[in-house]
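User: Okay, second chain of the day. Same drill as before: sequence in, structure tokens out.
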Amino acid sequence: MYLKRITTALAMTAALPVLSAQATDLEVTHWWTSGGEAAAVAEFAKAFDATGNKWVDGAIAGGGGTARPIMVSRLIGGDPMGAFQFNTGRQAEELIEAGLLRDLTDVAEANGWKDIIYPSSLLDACTVDGRIYCAPVNIHSWQWLWLSNGAFEKAGVPVPANWDEFVAAADALRDAGLQPLALGGQSWQSAGAFNVLMVALAGPDALVDIYGNKNAELAGGEEMARVFKAAADARSMAEGSSVQDWNQATNMVVTDQAGGQIMGDWAQGEFAVAGKVAGKDYTCLPGLGVNELIDTGGDAFYFPVIDDPEIKAAQDELANLMVSPEVQVSFNLKKGSLPIRGDIDLAAANDCMKKGLEILAAGNTLPSTTQLNTEDTNNQLNDLFVEFFNDNSITPEDAQARFVDIVSSAE
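Assistant: Same drill. Structure tokens below.
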């Protein structure tokens, strides 16, 4: 449905890398434009350029919601890039069905991806009809609350250890002239915060059953009513947060202007660029300090079908390089994400990254919404929750009723 909408809109507007024998320019499109993201993607570019090829950066500002339609438009319009970033999950299904993306199975098998990529769900998310179509590059989890230690010191209250304590500290933060909860205006931020609340308060089984099994009865039940009440609390705490982009909201926490932010672990990259130290300058609570687990979403790179053997060879080289041990370390340390292989040394990881690694090693994981939902369903959820967080006249009960309708009609 997503691809069909873009097509209609177009109609209406009419192993380790080795040095390459042939240097090839490869345009790579992505939406990593914040300070931490730019530092991370530079590690990919540096490693690829070292092979003798040339990384041609095609960054698109505005996040995935802005970038994905542009990428899809180019692909179906006959102007493919050499490689592009999507989130791990179902976003590329229709592009694969249309025959626009390369089958990477031979590359994956030659380099033993099935033996090194962990958890296996990451490679499963790249697999359609038994064939592998993408290279996963990280594990990014939404399930985090980031807290400014300095903000709570200014407010004269202890740094919270869980969601309830954070809500209880909101008045003290307001009295100190601080924003309790930083939340940007992009719709995916609101939906993401809600989903984190769902996992923390209703449990991971609720998220999987509602999104994976389309359980509308559970979506409309008392357990989810509690989540919608918590979302209303979060809405109240976010009033006054007038920024738009997620990294602007993160910067409010980094600079002690806000108490906290519900955001994925990519926020760590912004703390790192600012020179902040985990455990000293800021605190991270996986699962909002309630259910300590992580989802296994993240990013993956796809490679369009291009009838040029030199570009194809460069694509193969980039795909394998992204999974290589050295690049996995350098990229993920800058990105704040976890690596997609468990056989590498991450001694340099900070306290928050180590928490994530421990949760991953214990197997306390769940699939991400991009793995459970179609892009169309996630867009409907984004629309619902950005409206809810921006309009106090929408009651939790009304929002829950709309939520049930979305779940009931989901594919």
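The chain is about 50% helix and 10% strand.

User: Thanks, on to the next one.
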